[in-house]
Amino acid sequence: MPLTIRPATVADMDNVARLCWAYRDLLVERSDGLPPVVDAYYAKDSYAALIADLPRIHARPKGDILVATLNDTVVGCAMYYPLAEPGTTEIKRVYVDTAARGTGAGRALMQDAMQRARADGYTRMVLDTIIRLPEAIALYERLGFEPCAPYYDPDPTFAPFLRFFDHPL
Known about the structure:
By secondary structure, the protein is of the alpha+beta class. The chain has helices spanning about 15-30, 35-40, 45-55, 105-120, 135-140, and strands spanning about 5, 65-70, 75-80, 90-95, 125-130, 145, 160-169.
């Protein structure tokens, strides 16, 4: 069965939570030796509360949670929501299961989110990532995202390890 990208349903939220925790695990693994960025931004208790609140945070009509399915299995997710700056949306928690990497799921999630955000009236999409995710950075650059100034005030301890990107929609 082909790769498909679609809006998440209530029935998908357990899989979205699973993917979000896997994303956090990847950040823990990749941030080894860096200041405790994961503990600061993804502390387990607050992250669990955030995951439970994702449907509200990314609710239509201003946001969305997307899933990638392969052979009817949810293998990836991405989500966007509005920022205070008019016309700007942030894409968050773009993640693809290890077994599904190389299938184009990450690219498809990003492209679909960009298209949907444009249709929702956004004119700019922003994102942040850590320097230890070179595969993600390469994907963002291939999609035309360019480095930009931080769109929030990062903790000065972590700022050198963060990268910010934006893309006109």
